[in-house]
Amino acid sequence: MPNPLNRYVLVYFSHLMTNIETAANRSFFFQDKSQYGSDALRSRLRREISIDPEVRELMKDGYEAFASRVVERLMQERRQDIFLNNCPKCGALAHTPTAKQCPACFHSWHDVE
Predict the structure, then answer these.
(1) Boundaries of domain holding 110
(2) How many structural domains are present in the chain?
(3) What is the pTM of this model?
(4) pLDDT tens, residue by residue, 85-111
(5) Do 70 and 113 fall into the same domain?
(6) Which residues lie below 8 Å from residue 71, measured CB to CB, with a gap of 6+?
(7) How far apart are CA 87 and CA 68, in angstroms?
(8) Which of 45, 66, 67, 87 could be cross-linked to 102 through a Cys-Cys bond (beta carbons 3.0 to 4.6 Å apart)?
(9) Burial 39-49 (b: 16+ CB within 10 A, else e)
């Protein structure tokens, strides 16, 4: 099961990644998608996977390790630019930066201004 913090940060704050991290993240996407569809589609998607040695180095331990390293770096270096939308009742991380209902306890803060 993917780490919710990793997913949240990489989806909503991907603009904070370096160019190499972005290329690796994109390559992981194409690598995953290249497992499905026709032979022609899979072949085309595989060509999108980066062969850059720096990107391949970031990818060598798999997606979860890559995601954890990137999120750890971003939380250390760019924490002020990352808004974690935590539930005011239980502290769980919401699904999106603009969500107003907790996925854990279902508390709603729609009416809070």
Answers:
(1) 86-113
(2) 2
(3) 0.84
(4) 999 999 999 999 999 999 999 999 988
(5) no
(6) 3, 5, 6, 9, 10
(7) 22
(8) 87
(9) eeeeeebeeeb
